[in-house]
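sry for the spam today, last one i promise. struct tokens for design, 153 residues
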């Protein structure tokens, strides 16, 4: 059961403890002082709880904001696509440096005649006709067959 700490409730409890007799002025002053002290302490407690709840709410909001901020930063890092034309493309490659890549690209361009003017190696074409390639492969296969041909029985 909830205790009644109102002034009237405390006076009633004190009169019951006094055998139902009227309280003296000194007893009433004591009950009133205890009531004021209880009310003061209850108010301090309520203020502390309200402040603690507000601090907890602010801490939770700050934590949620930090999580959202980190998530947005992660998504931004993940979505950053670097294209080969980007100056930073390949800078982290330790096996094939940017200078080596440029040199290899220049050698490939020089090797292939009739390449397009742009730098995209995927779109390079050669002036070699497919029939020339087929003929060359055929000639090589004929030589291989002659060299490794099993003896006739």
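last one done:
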């Amino acid at each position: 059961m909830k205790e009644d700490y109102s002034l009237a409730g405390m006076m009633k409890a004190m009169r019951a403890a006094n055998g139902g007799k009227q309280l003296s002025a000194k007893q009433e002053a004591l009950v009133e002082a205890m009531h004021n002290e209880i009310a003061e302490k209850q108010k301090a407690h309520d203020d502390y709880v309200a402040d603690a709840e507000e601090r907890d709410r602010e801490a939770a909001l700050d934590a949620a904001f930090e999580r959202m901020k980190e998530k947005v930063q992660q998504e931004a890092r993940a979505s950053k696509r670097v294209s080969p034309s980007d100056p930073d493309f390949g800078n982290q490659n330790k096996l094939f440096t940017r200078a080596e890549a440029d040199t290899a690209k220049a050698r490939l361009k020089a090797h292939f005649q009739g390449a397009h003017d742009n730098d995209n190696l995927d779109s390079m074409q050669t002036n070699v006709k497919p029939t020339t390639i087929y003929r060359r492969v055929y000639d090589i296969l004929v030589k291989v067959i002659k060299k490794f041909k099993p003896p006739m029985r």
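Confidence is low (pLDDT under 50) at residues 115-124. ok im logging off now
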